[in-house]
Structure formats: structure tokens, C-alpha cells
Amino acid sequence: MTTPPTAPWSEAAETVASAVGTDPTTGLSPEEAARRLAADGPNELPSKPPVPAWRRLLAQFQDPLVYLLIAAILISAAAWVLEGAHGVPVDSLVILAVITLNAVLGFVQADKAADAVAALSAMTKARSTVLRGGNRVLVPSSELVGGDVLLLGEGDQVGADARLTQSAALRVIESSLTGEADAVSKTADTVDAGTDLADRTSMVYRGTSVAQGTGRAVVTATGAGTEMGAIARMLDSVEEEPTPLSREIAQISKMLGVIVVVIAVVTVATLLLLADDLTSHTVIDALLLGVSLAVAAVPEGLPAILSVVLALGVQRMALHQAVVKKLTSVETLGSASVICSDKTGTLTRSEMTVQEVVTLSGDAVVTGIGYVPEGEVSPDADGDGAPDVESLAGDQLAEVTVVLSGGAMASDAELAADEGVWSVIGDPTEGAFLVAERKLGTDGHREGRFERVGEVPFTSERKLMSVIYTDAHHEGRMTIISKGAPDVLLERCTRVRRGTGEEELGDGVRRHFTDSISAMSGRALRTLGVASRLLTAEETAAVTQALADGGDTDFSDLEHSLVLAGVVGIIDPPRPEAADAVAEAHRAGIRVLMITGDHPATAGRIAADLGIAEPGAQVLTGRELTDMDDEALSGAVARTNVYARVAPEHKMRIVAALKSQGHTVSMTGDGVNDAPALRQADIGVAMGITGTQVTKEAATMVLADDNFATIVAAVAEGRRIFDNIKKFLRYLLSSNMGEVITVFGGVVLAGVLGLSDHSTSGVVLPLVATQILWINLVTDSGPALAMGVDPSVEDVMGRAPRKPTDRVIDSSMWAGVIMIGAVMGLATLTTLDIFLPGGLIDIAGTSVDDLTTARTAAFTTLVLAQLFNTVNSRSESVSAFNHLFVNRWLWAAIALGLVLQVAVVEVPLLQAAFSTASLDLTHWAVCVVMGSLVLWFDELRKVVRRARARG
Length: 951
Prior knowledge:
The protein is of the alpha+beta class. The chain starts with 12 loop residues before the first helix and ends with a helix. Helix content is 47%, strand content 16%.
């Protein structure tokens, strides 16, 4: 692009547009935009260069547990040297191989988690509406280029620095850039070149958001050239605060580390005290075992496994239209106890359709559903909701035409078809008028007659919008057309349209319309009124002068003495799956609240249809909430499920009241004013289709399909992921507990087991260090990752939500971990005793092995016990044989573990590396039976647990 002025805020908008080579009325051509994007690069903030792969791999070695393994290598190498350095240092090389393999696995797992986060981030990237070749198009903000014409509306996030060319009641939140909390009024008027950033009212900046109004602006800077880009270059990355789950797992790892170090020290001291001859070899062996025990007993792969499991779960959610922005948010999502949902688009289809039109001359019905402009507008004289045979005619036709055309003109929406698929760009309710006008067939009469010159934008506080047009049929006069909530609009009307004329709006006529509004609301229709009036010559002159001055003029003082044209009833039918989703939420112990800005009768009817509330249940309005103090509100939210005519501040109070009662709250929202409530909620849910970019930034989760059922499905997935985290924690901790008990018990009970009789130095090792490391390698990561994708064994939606105070690993789980670890250790030591002469068990024909063979059998039993433990750990109460074969990944991990164990026992090269010997069928049979004791013991424990639960 050509170079923009250095201070575009001080130059006229036309001058800036010319300087950047664009037409503010049509924007750039698609071809020119593509050329500039290729030349200037994407509109992205500067960021730190990615960390090279080699540095990320080296980072896997920067861990205290790895340092312990390195110490083990040095100790083993020292022992090899002291023994004369014969052959190769097998133990040192094996431990080095284990370290390297663990680092590679961690590197791959970390990359997978990072890729998942990047993919999810791409799904929630900001988009901007621009003019390209005179057409409104929605493009990724990263594709904005200098000279693009931005179309700004309430809730939009500004995608690049830009000079305003038009504005209508435009207010922008610039706190992310200037620190100013209040929204700043913006106009197209120039300001001095030396004006501070916060006072440049003719500019909008990347990263800020539109709080109110509309505007057009020409992009003057993108990417690193923006004000936000200048700040980004000075920023360092900020560490995220750990979640409760992360903190608890860190505490567990630290606690285990301390316990195991103590055990290792005691074990080493015991070995040295029991040694008959304290040689350097004895000391080296004792130190090597202690270090190996410390490493083996701590699940060092836990952080990487946790990240991958969360990443895989979040990816599954994304496939089902729920985009969770942070991996660790899953733990909160699964514990939701209250879902506060909007109505429109979330519980309903969000295909707003005008169904009824009420005017002074009678009722009319509109057939057809959705955005496809197929249907008819017919009279409904008997009010039964079915179209009459006769066609619209006379006064009623004239009145309905004004209502539908006026609603279509008081609109910023566009109706478009793409390959036969009709859609609305803009507000769905405004789009409903465009569709209905086409069905009436009168949309063509406006062409060439009206020109829009001004507007008073809709805001959630005003519940009203107006537009000002010049009318070729009334030379020298302008017309204002207003559309909004009927109760608000009626207060501003003094006359009513009859045919092509008008008359006084008396009390009887007001009752006619208010009764019709109540009747339509009772049928779950959203009601909107349309009114207009011809401005006086003096008002027209004042508007003309204000427009010529180019200021940001507020024309809301013209919204009076309006002529009511009529009221429409708009249907947004419930989603067919919403009722089932509500029922599923209730079954899961989750309370569902509907919070909407619609009429109370409409909200109550939809809520009753969906099972959110009983028919005739209380519906609290925003005004009633305003009149309540916090204590009264707390009581009200405990018993009321439906809220209507609420403002954003009411949502925040409802969330605060629910959280004060100990609930984990999910809140949905789409408008810019919903962002504070979403941020305050435990789980902020933004609409992916209708939601503003500001709301998406504030949310925890974005619904790609704006569907309530997706929230419930995401909660179920969150519960399943959390259950799977508990599964692999139960597995890892109990398996490591078994290792600790085996090694410590074997050393302490060496004399009882007959181990002491098989050592010339007095130092007795029940398992050598490389065997312990092998166990950790074979039985940790694979099965644990497989459990992370385990289908639900239990009915996750058949229980109450998890309380925020509940620990991931509670006392019951710790008891199970200790018991299973004890059985595992006992089975391993018993196997050792069976095959080793001189112990408690001396079965004829079995206790004749040498130490290496007996160790190999014990080693194999411990591995098999941990593989049996994989099916145990899938539930604390459900039998392992329930849904035994549903997880093919788990069985693949078990099969791989078996194959590797057979290899390490039978392959000569691995025998030398891991101090093993071949086993015959008797050995293998005993190992399988002893290893399976873990399974049978846990099955018995689960039977007792289920019996206690029933009793």
C-alpha cells in the first residue's frame, strides 16, 4: 500500500483514504487486498521466535529426577571402573538409554499437547467485517491489510489501527491499550497531530472493542506497525496461574518425592549396615539401588501424560463443537452444578422468523420457517393462526407493507444466498424482516426511493433503534423509522397507521395492541413494534446541518410523537435436541436456568416446553431483581429458574449469588455486555456464531454451533476426562507403591526370604536397578495414556457434580493405592521366595533356582501385576470385567508390555543388559498366577465397596 500519514488522526478522512489507496465507499478489490497481503504479510503481532526442537529436547533433561538418573549412571560407571572396566558398562548404558527414551517420549508428548492448543486457538481466531469490492465480507483479522475499510458494530473487536470515516453513537473500550476503563466516544472529526493516544477520538486501535454504535474506518496500520504491536515487542510471556488440579498433582509429586527419598536413604543405610564386608563395590551397589528406587517410585511422566490426556479430551470436545480455550479448564467444566443459559440461539434454533403481523386492521400470518424467503403473508381474520383463503388487500395490505418494509429499513442486516443456502449477515431478528418482506413481495418498491442518512443505534439499555431516511416522495422532508420492544415503542407513539393514513392512538387501540402483544408472548413469540413519522421541515433542516457539520450527532431526541405501524410476532423455535439435553443435565444433578432479555411470557413458555421450569412457574424480571438486595436475591435464585428482561448487570448478580451458595456456575453470553458475567462465572461460554469477539475473548469455552446440547455434552466429556485422570493417577500411584514395597521389603526381609544366603558381599538386591527402570518404562506411560482415552465405565451423568472442595485423590483412593501396592509387593516377594532356596516357602522342585532366575521371576511377576492393575484401575467400584474390551488402546499397551517383558527375559542381548535369565513354563505360570492376585484382590474389595454403598 502507499504510505499513510504519520498522524492520520490529524488528517481528513478523505485524505487518509487517498494516501492508503482505497475508496471508503467500496473498499479494496479482492485482488488488491490479496496483493497487499502477500507484500506486507499477515496482520499478526510480533512474537518470540519458536523454541528450536533441539532446545525443547534438551529441556526434557532439566528435571531433578533426571539428575538422579544421571547420578545413577555415574555411580554405575564408577562401579564398572572399580571392577576393572571389563567389557562394556552395561548398567550405565541401559540407564542412559532409558533417560534418552524418556526424553524423546516427553518431547513428542509435549509437541502433541502444543499442537492441540494451536489447533484450538485457530478455531477461535478473531474475524473482521470489511468492504471488499463494495461487498460486506467477513475475513480473519490476520488477513486485514492497509487500506481495508472496516465495518464496526457493537461487540466487534477492532482488528487493526484505522482512521474513522463515519460513526454513529460510536463508543470504544480502549482499556487494553490506554488503561482507560470507560468507553471512549469516537467521531470522524480530526484532532491535533500532537494529541495523546488516549485522546485520538478519530482513530480506532487493534485489540480494542466496540461497546456501542457503528462506524466505518480505513486501516492505516497492521501487525507490528499497530500501537498494540509496539507494546507487544516490549512484553515478556506471562506464566499462567496453576489450576487446582495442577497444584494438587504438584503437591502429590513433591510429597512422594520426600517420602521416597527418605525410604531410599533408609534402604541404603540398611544395606550398608547389614553388609558383612563394606567395600567400595558394596557402597556403589547400595547407592545405585537407592537412587533407582527414588526414581522408580515417583511417576515422573505424570505432567506430560496429564497434558496429553487433557489435549486429547479437548480435541474431542472441539470435534463436537465445544472449543475449550485452555486445557486445564476441563476440570472446572466437569464439575458444573448450574448452567445459566440464554434462550435465543442456544436453546432455540436462532433462525428468527416473522410468524404474525398485528396492525389496526387485523392480524396476518406469515408461512415458512427460517431464512429461505419462501412463504406467504395472508390475513387471519378468525385468529386461529392459520392463513385465510383470501389474500391481503386494502388497508391491511398497506399497513402490513409499512410494518415489514419499515422493519427491513431499520436494520443493518443483509440477506444473502450462497449456493442455494440462505443466511443473514447481521442480527437474526433484523434478518427476519428482510425475509418476511420478500415473502410479501414488496421489497422492490423501496429501490431508488429512500436513502439512509443517519441512525440511532440499538443498545441493550434502550431496547430501540431508529434510522433516518430521505424520501423521494416527500421532497425536503426526512423520515425517521423506529423499531424495538413494543412496550418501549408504545410510550413514544401518539398516533397509529390506518391504511395509508393515520389517526390518534387512543386507549382502546393501545389495549388492542397490548392484548395482542400478551397473546403472542404467551405463544412463545418474540414481539417487536415498528413506528415512523415524517420529520418537520425544521427537524429536517437541523438533521441536514448536523450531517453537514460531520459531527457524531445523537438523533434520539427525534424518537417521539411516532406513528405506530404495527407489531410482529417472531418465532425462534426450540432446538429439537434441547429438551433432551435439559433432561440429561437434570439427571446429572445440574440445575438449568434460563436468563433472557425476552418478554416474561415468552421465557416462561419456552422454559416450560423444555422442562426448565413447570408451567406457570415464577419468572423474575430485571426490574424485580433491581429491587432486591443481595440477601433477597440469594433466596430468589435458589428457587427460580427463569429470568426475563434482564440486563448484563443482573447476570453478574445472579452469578455472584449462585457462587456464594457453593455452586460451580456456567454462564452463556453473546453480547459485548455479557463479557463481565462470563469472566465472573466459573465457566464462561460464548456463542461461536452470534457471539461478539469480545465475548469470545472473555469466555472459557466457545460453542461453534451455539447449541445448549453442546454444553451438556461438554460437561459429560469433562466428567469423563476427569474420571480418566483419576484412573491413571490410581494406576501410576498404586503401581509405584508396589515397586517401593517390593524393594524396601526385599532389603529389610532379605534374611527371611533367603536372599542373604546368595550374596558374598552381604548386600542383597531383590531387583537390580536396571530392572526397576525397565518396569517404570514399560508399565507407566503406555497404559496411563491409554487410560486417558478410556470410554466411560461408569454412568458419568448419573451422579451429582463434583464439589470444588473435593480432592482429586481422596482418602478412599489413597487407601486403595496402598492396599493394591501392598498386594503387588507381597505377590512379588512371595514369587521370589518360591523359587529361591532358604526362605519361608520351600516347595519341592521349585526352590532350586539361582538368584538370577528367582529375581527374573519376581521381576516378571511385578510387571505382570502392574499390567493386571491396568484393568483394575479403570474404576474404584465397577468390576474390571465390566466393558472389559472397549478400550483397544489399553489392550494394545498391555500386549506391548507383555511382548517387551518376554523379550527382556528370553533375548540374550537384553538378558545381559537387565540381569535376567530364561524362564520355563512353570516359572511363567507361577508369575501369571501371582501377578493376577492384584486383580482378584481388587475385585473382592470392589464387591465389599458396592455392598456398603447399597446398605
